[in-house]
Structure formats: C-alpha cells, structure tokens
Amino acid sequence: MLKIGLLGAGRIGNVHARAISSHPGSTLVAISDVNMDAARKLAEQYGAEARSTDDIINDPSIDAVLVATSTDTHSDLIEAATAAGKAVLCEKPVDLSLERARACQKAAAKNGRPVMIGFNRRFDPNFAALKAAVDRGEIGKTELLSVTSFDPAPPPVSYVKVSGGLFRDMMIHDFDMACWLMGGFPETVTAVGSSIVDPDIGAAGDVDTAVVTLHFADGRIAVIKNSRRAVYGYDQRVELLGSEGLLSAGNVLENTVSKATKDGVASAKPEFFFLERYMRAYSAEWHAFVTAVNAGSPLPVTLDDGVNALAVAEAATRSAKSGQSVKLASI
Ligand SMILES: NC(=O)c1ccc[n+]([C@@H]2O[C@H](COP(=O)([O-])OP(=O)(O)OC[C@H]3O[C@@H](n4cnc5c(N)ncnc54)[C@H](O)[C@@H]3O)[C@@H](O)[C@H]2O)c1
User: Which domains, ranges and CATH numbers included, belong to the chain?
Assistant: First the structure.
C-alpha cells in the first residue's frame, strides 16, 4: 500500500484526492496547501491530515507525493521530493521556464526517483484505444495528425496572467499528444495566435485562439487547433491519417440520446469541461502511476516527456510572437 502526500488542494488537487483515496493500492495520508483552510477542508473529507509541504516531503513514512500546486512551484517541489526519496506524480507543465525545467530534469535524474508528469489525456479510454491501434500498425505509417482542443469558456484574466500563456498552459497537452501519437519529436514549430475571444486576454499579452503546425524530420505533419471558447462545450477530437487508413476519436457526449425530426438530427452537447470529460482518465493515470511505482517498472509518462512538451510550447510561443517558424534544435 503506497502512502501518499498530496501537495495542493485546489481544483485539480480535489480530483487527485478522490483518485488516490479510491485506489486500493494507495492511502492518502496528508495534504498541504499554502492556504491551510483549503488543505484542512480536503483532508477532513478524505480522513487525511493537513500538514505543511515541507513536513510531508520530509516524512520518511510517505512513499510518494502528488504535486498539484501552482505551476511556478513544480520544479522546486519535484527536486525537493525526489531528494527526499519520494516517487512523484506532478501536474503539467513542469515549469513556466524551460531553462528551470531542464535544471529540474538533471537534478531529478541525479536523485534517481521516478517522476511522472500529469498528461492525463493519454489515459482517456478513447485516445488510449486510438494509440493502441496505431501501435498495432492498423493504419500503417502515420502521416498527418489533426488535434482539436477547445475549452468551453475562457478562464479569468487573473489566471491567464500567471499561466505562462496558452501554449505552455493549455496546448502543452496537445503537444504531448502529438509527440505520443506520432511517436517522435518535431523538428520545426510554426504558430499563429490571436486574441479574438476576450480582448482582456490580448491586453494581458496572451492569445485565446491558436493554430500550430509541427513538422517532423521525416516529413510527417501535425496540426493543432486551440480556442478558449466553444459555446457548445469542451471539444476534444483527434484524427490521424496513415498510409493504410484513418483513426478518429470524437467527443464524449453528455448522454447518448439523439433526436431525429423533420427539422434535422440533434444530439446532446459534449461533456462540459475537463472535470467531466477526463474523470476516468485521472483515475487511470493514478492507477498507472501506482502500478509502475510498485513494480519498479518504467513510468508511462516521464519528466523527459514533460520537458519535451515544454520545449515545443516555448518554440510555439516564440513562433507566434515572431511570425517565423522555429527549429526545436535552437530552443
Ligand atoms: N492535467 C489537467 O487536466 C490539469 C487541470 C487543471 C490544472 N492543472 C495543473 O495543475 C496545477 C494546479 O492547477 P489548479 O487549477 O488546481 O490551480 P488552483 O489555483 O485551483 O490550485 C493550486 C493550489 O496550490 C496551492 N499552492 C501553491 N503553492 C503551494 C505550495 N508551495 N505548497 C502547497 N500548496 C501550494 C494554492 O494555494 C492552490 O490552492 C497547475 O499547474 C495546472 O496547470 C492540470
């Protein structure tokens, strides 16, 4: 039974608390948050203790920590936790700064403890089935990937200001998906971005609508589209064309009822947002972490994957600003 400390009792911390507690192979021992009230409230809910972050990291009886704190704390906490001998599952992105993330990657490698990054979409049953079909060679050689990822509504501008921008905060999931599904790392990144949903997002220096093209050295291409607003719900689709066919994964709808009348055919909306759409993925992600740590086997998503996705995000940020394509080798 793995004893777990959860760092961060915010939005995603709440999701992880549930996954940790409901897993038969893990016990949620303690929760920290700089907002002690939030830590206490969540700890009470799950029969855990509210303690300080340092206290949890330095407790030798705790086997692993889940880092669900604000992004600017991730590298420091990964380093401290692995130095204290803990296995770590850390939320994306690894850091706001690629340089800092790379330093963390070196330090964690030296500490020799397993670190997984929370790219939960890999554990969504639909995307996981699509990837399994790719790996079985069912569409031959992958050639052209198209990823659509639209949020239902933009976040508050206060969030945008500390998020690191759309490419590091939101599209980072899609960069990881693209590298994972295409089985490689792109050579060149070309990005365009606009602020057409909320002018305050533009005034804060970010974009809310963006398209990125990833070009792989062997000629394969991935196109990623992000928007911070889709009035019909969370739109998460993937289409992958290969030499022997096409694989697509569509949205998960709120229900399966469809209505056909003389006016047309209508169905329910896509599930509202990540808390609805990816709840099964967060549980499967936690199960994969517990299984790998217990078995001492390789983690399905690594810190290297997190740093790679952040490098693509950095290149996309630069490309959108400069209007030029950016070579990953220059990042
Ligand atoms: N994988 C996903 O689907 C997903 C979804 C949402 C958020 N995230 C990521 O999770 C992280 C948290 O996002 P959120 O939406 O839950 O934010 P949030 O603001 O709701 O929660 C973050 C919490 O961390 C606490 N905190 C900050 N520094 C801390 C420290 N040193 N020790 C303990 N607690 C600390 C804050 O007080 C806050 O309660 C972000 O990095 C975000 O990118 C991932």
Answer: 2-113 (3.40.50.720), 122-278+309-330 (3.30.360.10)
What is the position in ligand 1's atom list of the atom closest to the CA of 35? 37
The number of the ligand 1 atom at minimal distance from the alpha carbon of 72 is 41
Which residue puts its alpha carbon closest to atom 20 of ligand 1? 10
Using one digit for the tens of pLDDT, what is the confidence trace for 284-301?
999 999 999 999 999 999
Cβ neighbours for 285, distance < 8 A, ≥ 6 positions apart: 19, 89, 118, 120, 122, 123
SS3 content of the chain, % helix, strand, coil (to 5): 45, 25, 35
Report pTM.
0.97
Identity at 18, one-letter amino acid code = R
CA distance 221 to 213: 7
Euclidean distance between the first and the last CA atom of the chain, given in angstroms as a whole number: 41
DSSP string, 85-99: T-EEEEPSPS-S-HH
Mutate which of 12, 116, 289 for ligand 1? The one with the most ligand atoms within 8 Å of its CB, which is: 12
